[in-house]
Amino acid sequence: MRNILVIDDDPDMGKLLSHFLTRKGFTVETASSGTNGLKKLREQQFSLVFSDFRLGDMDGIQVLKETKEINPACAVIIITGYSDIKMAVEVMRLGAFDYITKPLIPEEILNVINRVFETQPAGPTTKSDKQQEVAAGVENGFLVGRAPATVDMYRQIEIVAPTNFSVILYGESGTGKEVVAKTIHSKSDRSGRPFVAVDCGTLSRELAASELFGHIKGSFTGAIGDKEGFFEAANGGTLFLDEVGNLPLDVQVTLLRVIQEKKFRRVGSNKDQFTDVRVIVASNENLKEAYKKGKFREDLYHRFNEFSINIPPLRKRKEDIPLLANFFLASVAGELGKTIDGFDNETMELFLNYDWPGNIRELKNVIRRSTLLTSSGKITSNVLPWEILGSLDEPGNVANETAASPVAERINGHGIAAEGLKDATLRAEYNKIMEVLKQVNYNKTKAAIVLNIDRKTLYNKIKQYEDLQEAE
């Protein structure tokens, strides 16, 4: 069992997070100060630390540095308020695994924990025949599927990986663009050098240049010291720019110069620095159409477009679903110390009939949830989310299903019942918010933009629904 330490000087927050994680099957310890937390780290082994950024006796930077000195393998996640995001990003540059912003969303917490434990070796497990078959199809961490679209995509990866070509990856959210980028890197001569992934959608307009190219002390308000950018961090290796179309046009101009001349200047500096970086970019929109609309520079598009790969959505590669499902099951079962014998026929039929709007990311989360809810034997449809249960029936309003429908009965069994109009509206809003959050990988800023509301309204909607659940 992986151990988690929660450091928060707010006892209510620490207790709430501890109870939630314990219910999810993790072993959790809490500390009410940074000093107490570091003491526990010296006395026990932890795989993960959740630390509030602002503690009474120290901040997240100090917690991170001392945690890494005590246990370099321990992942650190910073909990921050919205006003502290700039500092939290700085903590990530210093080695934090990730940060999450308040108010905390259960699915976001589980999502980031899942990513932590995917990067850490699981305990020894006995693999079934299906799991061994899956393992045989994994190359450099990439699962080689059977669907024609997947086989063609992997063929293109094999062709372009040994070159220094820039690559554009197109694909819907959740299709695994970063995994493909990592696979290209791992199959190149740069595999022993850094792979740095950047979500351009999270870079503010004011700080994008600083994040990419670094800055020198005093170059702008808040620049309290010299700072290296992503290009320096990735020198000799691969820089992956996800959602590159979100970069401001003025930053795109600088980016073009860097790629063409292989040199850059930190913000505020007049000194050139040389860089040797292979750039892979990703977008869920067509960059050619974007430059025609004036949203992306045409010259930068042509510089990136030495090679492009379209990553098919999961609904276009359904032959891979059983393989992917067993791949994720083997990983999660090992993490939880469980022995699960696969999926029953009805469950797999539901998987094959569902459209997977969240693609591979959604499938992975469903497998994690189902494995957690299954003690032994096979995973059955009883532990699946209700939206997947409806995939066997004809499309339509769930409320119109007859009582004789077994799918409708299972949906009703998941707690859907008559309720007041106000509460029903709130639940519908919450469901929509969660749908969008999943699509943008729980990035609250991007979710607010998609929903056409501000972050404060987004937080209030989530809080209102939490209050409704507590009242029930």
Walk me through this protein's architecture:
This protein has 21 helices and 16 strands. By secondary structure, the chain is α/β, with parallel strands linked by helices. The strands form 5 sheets. Strands 2-1-3-4-5 form a 5-stranded parallel β-sheet, with helices on both faces. A 5-stranded parallel β-sheet has the order 9-10-13-8-14.
Mean pLDDT: 80
Number of strands: 16
Q: Can you count the helices? A: 21
Percent of residues in helices: 40-55%
Neighbour order of strands in the largest sheet: 2-1-3-4-5
Radius of gyration: 23 Å
In whole angstroms, how far apart are the ends? 32 Å
Major β-sheet annotation:
5 strands, parallel
Oligomer: single chain
* Low-confidence residue ranges: 122-129, 132-136, 393-418
Globally, the shape reads: globular
Structural class: alpha/beta
Fraction in beta strands: 5-15%
Properties at a glance:
alpha/beta, 21 helices, 16 strands, 472 residues, 5-stranded parallel sheet
Short summary of the structure?
Helix content is 46%, strand content 14%.
How is the secondary structure organized here?
Elements: E1 3-7, H1 11-23, E2 27-31, H2 34-43, E3 48-52, H3 60-70, E4 75-80, H4 85-93, E5 98-101, H5 106-118, H6 129-136, E6 138-139, E7 142-143, H7 148-160, E8 167-170, H8 177-186, E9 195-199, H9 208-213, H10 230-233, E10 238-242, H11 249-261, E11 263-264, E12 273-274, E13 278-283, H12 287-292, H13 298-304, E14 307-310, H14 321-336, E15 340-343, H15 345-353, H16 359-373, E16 377-379, H17 386-389, H18 406-412, H19 421-439, H20 444-451, H21 455-471
